[in-house]
Design a protein that fits this description.
mainly beta, 1 helix, about 5% helix, globular
Length: about 80
């Protein structure tokens, strides 16, 4: 399932950091974690932000590693 901007929402914002929630619908966690999945939100996301993803196969918190040209995410260590 492709990214849907209407499913992305801000949960908290402070000191340049944003905590987001994304309801992935039919997309899997692997789909949402793939580099470029969030490219349509490049102008909204910033490196250092975190995304809480709710998908049909579970949940995960992703770290936004970069937004230069495309959104790159990484799993939290």
């Amino acid at each position: 399932m492709p990214f849907a901007i209407r499913n992305l929402s801000v949960l908290a914002y402070a000191q340049g950091f944003t905590l987001w929630h994304y309801k992935a619908g039919a997309a899997t966690l692997a789909d949402a974690a793939a580099d470029g999945f969030f490219d349509d939100a490049t102008d909204m996301l910033a490196a250092g932000d975190m995304l809480m993803v709710s998908a049909r196969d579970g949940g995960r918190v992703l770290f936004v590693a970069g937004t230069q040209g495309r959104v790159v995410t990484a799993a939290l260590a």
